[in-house]
Protein 1
Amino acid sequence: MNDDSSHNRIVILGSTGSIGTSCLEVVEGLGNNMEVLGLTAHTSWRDLAAQSRKYRPRWSVLSDERIRSRVETSEFGSDTELCFGTDAIEDVAAADEADVVICGIVGVAGLRGVSAAISAGKRVGIANKEPLVMAGGLMMKAAAEHGATIIPVDSEHSAIYQAMKSGHPSEVKRVVLTASGGPFRGWKREQLTDVTPEMALAHPTWDMGAKITIDSATLMNKALEIIEAKWLFGLSVDQIEVVIHPQSIIHSFVEFVDGSVIAQLSPPDMKLPIQYALTYPRRVSGVARKLDWSTGMNLQFDPPDLENFPGLQLGFEVAERGGTCGAVLNAANEGAVARFLAGDLRFSEIPRACRAILDAHNFDPDPTMTELLRQDGWAREEIQQWRS
Ligand SMILES: NC(=O)C1=CN([C@@H]2O[C@H](COP(=O)(O)OP(=O)(O)OC[C@H]3O[C@@H](n4cnc5c(N)ncnc54)[C@H](OP(=O)(O)O)[C@@H]3O)[C@@H](O)[C@H]2O)C=CC1
Ligand SMILES: CC(=O)[C@@H](O)[C@H](O)COP(=O)(O)O
Ligand SMILES: [Mn+2]
């Protein structure tokens, strides 16, 4: 971080998305303490232009080179240099002037930006879980080598990060990830066959981008989060549990060896974990919603339904096996979700297709990044052709 910890220059990867726009609200709430240095989007150039005029970053990046000829550069304001391409995302994420990088790109498309920020030794707030699922072991190793500080932004992992402060890492018995259960909590396998994208996009508690919202509905989001937790906190699979908590008020628990369970509570609003990553180790007043204790509240907990939501089981298995499994599961799931949203795959086929591709892949227990990228590409081709 900047020596003057009251003023920090921030880069937001994926600034036009759900995490990105929440992050800009947080930055605005923090006032003069934060300066927006860089923003990135893929194709939403008009949104990025509006953000650029408002926050006046030094750089704005559009990663999709194909839209270059359509973009009206004058819309970005005179203070901002507009750049194109994924190389430019890496340059901004690693810029000497950047103190903190918030990673809010969706999918493995965010890998190069996250990796660049880590290699440059930045403070890196990671919401973008898919690169961790794909290559978490290599990323944590790189962070240690380059002196980067990874602060989880995913709500469950932020909660665990905060709760871990109550004891020494060696005193942690297990972590419990909470899951809302999604829009189909309590549904049976037969009922899930004819679910439409519109139904699956109606998350009961969180307002998020389309891909993660579908993942929440299949419980694949929790599967990815098991793998994410393993890498972020150096846990074994038998130290990770999942509990269904429909209210999304408790964002996860840490149980210590003495039996004490420490939880983090707040309304379902990503502005809190984003702000925590920006101001850590300090806590400051901010724009995130607060709990209202003046009205009654019931907090419910149920065991997860692995039979009707088989995607969750994949998370435990993949975290256990490691190697190339995370890359393959993640890539198959990204492709399956895209096909489901395009009306080309049934909802109930998402976990089935992921299972089939995972089982068919050529397992490597200790892959390099090159091998992980190769397997990611292979799984993306497989999922395009998959038929039940
Ligand atoms: N939303 C949430 O509350 C939470 C999200 N997360 C994680 O955070 C990440 C972002 O999620 P969310 O904000 O919901 O996603 P959104 O779909 O809302 O936003 C995605 C962002 O990534 C950009 N983007 C999309 N494709 C590419 C690409 N190929 N290359 C570069 N940039 C790209 C988009 O730009 P453009 O607008 O131009 O398409 C946009 O800025 C995901 O990994 C998700 O799992 C984790 C916890 C909570
Ligand atoms: C906000 C956040 O972190 C999401 O990952 C959220 O947890 C999704 O809700 P589910 O618990 O339904 O997966
Ligand atoms: Mn989450």
Note: The radius of gyration is 20 Å.
Protein 2
Amino acid sequence: MTAKIISGVEIAKQIREELKAEVAGLKEQHGVTPGLVTILVGENPASVSYVTAKQKTAHELGFHSVQDNQPEDITEEALLALIDKYNKDPAIHGILVQLPLPKHINETKVLYAIDPDKDVDGFHPVNVGKMVIGEQCFLPCTPHGILEMLERSGVETSGAEAVVVGRSNIVGKPIANLMLQKRAAGNATVTVCHTRTRDMAFHTRRADILVVAAGRPKVITADMVKEGAVVIDVGVNRIGKTPEGKAILCGDVDFEAVKEKAAAITPVPGGVGPMTITMLMKNTVQAAKQFAGLA
Ligand SMILES: Nc1nc(=O)c2c([nH]1)NC[C@@H]1CN(c3ccc(C(=O)N[C@@H](CCC(=O)O)C(=O)O)cc3)C=[N+]21
């Protein structure tokens, strides 16, 4: 079998078109322009490229978008004060502090400082808690994007064996939780594997849907995948540079080999990544509507 390629680029494009129309409507009918600030501390090249992509997308959708760059040596106190300023700014509906932060800043403290109503990343414990209960909240962007991909590709998750590789707060834990819930792209039987899992392949081979967020290049090889599985690769590993200096990316899945076995697979680049950015935009539109009492 050669897998169907689930294109994050294509699905993201479709959602962005929907959002663009919604933003235009919000402006015309209600005078509301969704506002997003992305705060970047330091100059980590990967972070710079992600934040640039987020700003570009926000701009294309007609948002009020603010890029706030801060020096690597900003104090925790100053960063918390900055967040407080945006918490109070009525033109800003979504606040994103790009992670990771420098070591002298307590990441947890920073994420707790963001107003949960502006927490479009869905990392504040109020939103995490609401997510687990299944209440309306901001879902973290990468898991949210995966749900949309599964749903819009017609993947049947109900009753299926879903195996998640990775237990991060950003991807592994939330996607496992969401796929377990009574919801679209949910109702799965979920197993979570991690670095201490004794026999990873034993679990992954049982997966009808395999979500891989391990953070290590090509850890999932063809022998670990069941014939006909749906494989979602969340990995973004920079494994080198082209002669022109562009980063060469690969996922956590050995794409070339696994695509011969899977029923469907997401590529890297062009899979989950573009969906992550798009869901940030979707969450920001949601935040703006809530702020205006429209949702
Ligand atoms: N507060 C916070 N929120 C985040 O959502 C967040 C973060 N911090 N820190 C880092 C991770 C990583 N992340 C990605 C977003 C887009 C792509 C993406 O668009 N990737 C492209 C390739 C882009 C490239 O060339 O690097 C693709 O896969 O096709 C990847 C990864 C968001 N993150």
Note: The mean pLDDT is 97.
Protein 3
Amino acid sequence: MIEIDISRARSFVKERAYNDSYEKAKQAFEQVKQRNGAGSEWLGWRTLLSDPNDAILEQLDSLATAIREDADVFIVCGIGGSYLGARAVIDALSPFFGTDGPEILYAGNQMSGQYLDELIGYLEEPNAEGESKSVYLNVISKSGTTLETALSFRILRNWMEDRFDDISERIVCTTSEEGGALNELIKKHGFPKFIIPDDVGGRFSVLTPVGLLPIAVAGIDIRSLFYEAVSKFEALEEDPEPVLEYAAVKHALYEQGKAIDLFTTFEPQLNALSGWLQQLLGESEGKENQGMFPAKATYSTDLHSLGQFVQEGPRNMMETFIQVDSMNEQVEVQAEDEDHDGLNYLEGRSFHDINSRALEGTLQAHHEGGVPCVVLTLDKLNAQHIGEFIYLYELLTAVYCYCLDVNPFNQPGVEFYKKEMYQLLGKQ
Ligand SMILES: O=P(O)(O)OC[C@H]1O[C@](O)(CO)[C@@H](O)[C@@H]1O
């Protein structure tokens, strides 16, 4: 279960402004449902859930099981929506240290040559048994032409070709059904391929093979993740109220001049989930001179860097706390005979309990300091709740963007840097 508490945000908004935004959110939800808003040809992230394809989950599961049995390392090569969702779920649900399956590494999400150099150096080191590492790679690119991903893939593919005889079994491609350079390589090498549906954009694609294959290779139950998103879809079709209220308050705050939505969590393993949210909202709402900048911070670490700014800087931000109610941890504070560090007052308390009080205190302080706060609470960190979270935010994004009257599903602005870069690189 995820609870959304908007009370500490709504108190900053006048009743009339909230009601106006709420009416907009209602109409926006109808546009999503009736498929008559801008970019409605991109609503495939809903069809996936209204008409689930269990055969694909089966296929992904069995390939992932085979890879888990043989791989020491699994590389996810992609950028933006082609890796952020997988990373968000994997980081949220995997142990901090060590794993019983392959190590998941990432490439193709930047252009650091040093990173690639060091990555290859690491792949060439023997595994824990002193043997050569068994490496698998999943290249993920809807367009099949994104420079960061394509370049890293070229280097890693060539390295794998030199190293292994069976690269057509070690490299899996996730791309569009047709077109793009990646489809040419698939034809040439016979790499196994998963298709990204045409009507699902990158940032809405985590519940397609884009996210699900890496997530399954990480040993996470993709059925629980996927089917809980399906349940959330059904629940919100029936009763969209939580999303309407959330979108309304966010929109009313935007209208009131809030320019930043700071996503914060006190659980470091959710840092990448905030990164996924950043792209989902940022690429969807930031257009036609509109939108709130989606920022992220991980507390309490960042309370010691950004906390001052949030508490007393310009009052132009709202904050969204992502909270987890119960954690599986047993670290408890023990009393010491001589209380030199003065911590005996915390005797018997768990770190989670102390961390939760830090969250409560921060929420209170920021709210009192003039920051409207939304609080999202997940009872636990598990695949079900993360699945629910994913659909909740996908729908919120669409509804809220329609309130702003922007097309949530395109990203024309991203092309500008590419044009300049390609010109400088001399691409014809
Ligand atoms: O999957 P692709 O086509 O490589 O694109 C990766 C990312 O790049 C963008 O298209 C922006 O350029 C994102 O929207 C997308 O998630």
Note: Residues 79-82, 141-143, 146, 149, 202-203, 283, 411, 414 surround 6-O-phosphono-beta-D-fructofuranose (CB under 6 Å).
